[in-house]
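Dear support,

Our group has been running a series of protein-ligand predictions, and this particular one with 2-acetamido-2-deoxy-beta-D-glucopyranose is the one our PI (initials K.S.) wants archived with full inputs and outputs. We had some confusion internally about which version of the output was final, so please treat the block below as the authoritative record. The input we submitted was:
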Amino acid sequence: MAPLLLAPLRCLPWLLALALGPAALASEGSRPLALQALGEAEELTEELTEELWRAGLPGDLPELEPECRRLLAAFADCSAALTGCLGRRARPVRLCQNCHLHYRRLLAQYGHIVRAVGNSSESHNCAKSILTSDRLQIVVTLSEFFNETWEAANCANCLKNSSEGLSNSTVEFLDLFNKSLTCFEHNLQGQTVYLSPNNYTEVCKNCNETYKMLNELYNNLQRLNRGGAESGHSSHLCIDVEDAVSIS
Ligand SMILES: *[C@@H]1O[C@H](CO)[C@@H](O)[C@H](O)[C@H]1NC(C)=O
Ligand SMILES: *[C@@H]1O[C@H](CO)[C@@H](O)[C@H](O)[C@H]1NC(C)=O
Ligand SMILES: *[C@@H]1O[C@H](CO)[C@@H](O)[C@H](O)[C@H]1NC(C)=O
Ligand SMILES: *[C@@H]1O[C@H](CO)[C@@H](O)[C@H](O)[C@H]1NC(C)=O
Ligand SMILES: *[C@@H]1O[C@H](CO)[C@@H](O)[C@H](O)[C@H]1NC(C)=O
Ligand SMILES: *[C@@H]1O[C@H](CO)[C@@H](O)[C@H](O)[C@H]1NC(C)=O
Ligand SMILES: *[C@@H]1O[C@H](CO)[C@@H](O)[C@H](O)[C@H]1NC(C)=O
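Confirmed final output from the archive:
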C-alpha cells in the first residue's frame, strides 16, 4: 500500500512543471527547464510503473493468514480432484461410483471453511473473506456447482449410505439387467434377420423370469427413492444406472 501513496508525492515536481507550462520555466541555464522536466517525467513514469508492478494490482489485499491460506488451498485441491474425476468419468457415465469420495472430501473442506467463519479466533476474518468479500465468491460458486451436479445426477439414489460404492439394490439391479440382456442375446442368436412369432414366444418363455424380476426391482427402486426423497425430484435412478441401461 505505502509505495502507491508515495508515488504521487514524488511526481509533484513534474506535475508542477507541466502545469506552469514551458514559457514560465524556460529561463534557467543551458537546458530549458521544460525539457528537463520532461526527462524527469519519463524517469518518474518508469519508476511509478515499476512501483505499481511491485506493489501488485491496485487494491491488492495483504496475504491471507497461513491457516486461512491452508483452508483455501485445500479447497482448491479438492475442487481440482473432483473436477478431474467428473470429467474423466463423464462417458460412459460412472461419476457416482467413482467420484463419491472426491465429492465427500470437497464437502468436508467446504465445511471447514464455513465453520471457521463462526470461530471467534483470528481465522474469523479470513474465512469470512474467503466466502463473502468479493462479487464472484468462487468458493461458494464452486461448491454450489458441485452440489447441483451431484443432485442432478441423483447419485444418492444408488450409492451406499456412507461408503464408496453402489448400494446393494443397485448392484442387484445391474446384475439382473445383465442377465436379461444375456438371455435375450442367447435366445435370439442367429435370428436377427427374421423373427417368427414362435421364436419371440421362445425368448419370452426363457427370459420371462429374469425380466420380471428386473422389472420388479426397478419399480421397487423407484418407489424406494420416491419414499425416502428429501427433495421432490429424486424418483430417478442415479445417472450411472440410467446410462448403463439407457433409460435416461
Ligand atoms: C478456531 O480457530 C483456531 C485457530 O485458527 C483453531 O485452533 C480452533 O480449532 C478453531 N475452532 C473451531 C471450533 O474451529
Ligand atoms: C453443498 O451441500 C452441502 C451438503 O448438503 C452443504 O452443507 C453445503 O452448504 C452446500 N454448499 C452450498 C454452497 O450451498
Ligand atoms: C446413513 O445411515 C445412518 C444409519 O443408518 C443414518 O443415521 C445417517 O443419517 C445416514 N447418512 C446419510 C448421509 O444418509
Ligand atoms: C450388501 O451386500 C453385502 C455383501 O453382499 C452384505 O454383506 C451387506 O450386509 C449388504 N448390505 C445391506 C444393507 O443389505
Ligand atoms: C455381464 O456380465 C458378464 C459376466 O460378469 C460380463 O462379462 C459382461 O460384460 C456383462 N455385460 C454387460 C452388458 O454388462
Ligand atoms: C426360430 O427361427 C429359426 C431361424 O429363423 C428357425 O429355424 C426355427 O424353426 C424357429 N423356431 C421356432 C420355434 O419357430
Ligand atoms: C414364464 O415362463 C414360464 C415357462 O414358460 C411360465 O410357466 C410362466 O408362467 C411365465 N411367467 C410369466 C410371468 O409369464
